[in-house]
């Protein structure tokens, strides 16, 4: 009990804090307070400081730097960013495969698989439906009458409908003599057309130029992406007149016949036609 009273008395003892001038020892200011009031003031100051710190963290961007505290809006932005990155990665992988295929086409390289026949390339439609129903005599005579009436009719709708690559009307890229035929067995996926030096090379169809550059083997090369997965390639040019991204119409001059590259023996155009990733014989569709 005596110790407790002694502690209380010490807390009640008053202390004086004096601020003096160091040179003249003149008293500038003084503060009188008991130890009890000093402790209460320090505790109150600490509580106010803690509260202000918590408020600052709660209502300012500083909370993002505190572990375990994340803004919901930031979470949404991060998730969207990861989703876009994933989509861009998939797109980049697809473009890588596409560019690798284009590179193989430019260099005349394709996997050693049997060339598949393009859809719509000289195919004939056939009816596989078998009718086993019994037909009456009147129905048989009516059918003969209708067939005989339209047998000799001449109209544009009676012509067979073309589909696939056969539906295109190709423009001859250059006129000349075919000196080397299409032969996929020896990896010659186009035709060589001998022509005069500096002869104009024209686009065979409307499309967009996706390659226009020089290669050591085939010289100056220009390639055009057409609709329906159709690609035309023009090699051994002397001058390229269109840049990548240029849109061209059928018959537009895109290059000049030349003798560039290692695989050439004279002025000519090496012309390739690709449909759905498969090389096709240009002579089947274009008169040179």
UniProtKB/TrEMBL annotation:
It holds the Pfam family Peptidase_M23. GO terms for molecular function: metalloendopeptidase activity. The chain crosses the membrane at residues 35-57. InterPro entries: Cell_wall_metabolism_enzyme, Dup_hybrid_motif, M23ase_b-sheet_dom. The keyword Membrane applies. Residues 187-282 form the M23ase beta-sheet core domain. Keywords: Membrane, Signal, Transmembrane, Transmembrane helix. This is Peptidase M23. It comes from Pelobium manganitolerans.
